[in-house]
Please model this.
Amino acid sequence: MRSDKLSAERIDEILAILDELKASGMKAEVFAQSKGLGYGQLRGWLSSAPRWRAQRAGVTLPPRRSTFVRAQCNPNPAPATDGSCQPAHARITCEVAQRRAQIDWPVAHAAECAQWLRAWLG
Model:
C-alpha cells in the first residue's frame, strides 16, 4: 500500500478546490498560481478527480487500461471498381475511456497515423 495515500478529508478538500476552479472559469495554470499551487499538482488532481468522486459516491470504476492497439492490415487489397489498385490500408480501432474511434489509414503513411494516434490518445 502506498504511504502517501490521501485521507478522505484531504480528498474532499481537493475536490472543493477543483469545484472552485470550475466555478471560477479561470485557466488551470492561472488558478494554480492564484492559490499558490503547482500547476502539475493541479493537473494530477484533475486527472484523479473522476475516480475520487466515484469512490466518494460508492461507485467502483473499472481500472484504466493502457494496452497495445493492434492494427488489422490487409496486405492484399481488393482492386477498385475502376480497375486501379488501391493502396493497402490499416483499420485501427481505439477505445479510451468512453471515446471510440475506428479509422482506415493508408499503410504507406504510417508515420502520420502514429502522430494522429498519439495526439488523440493524449
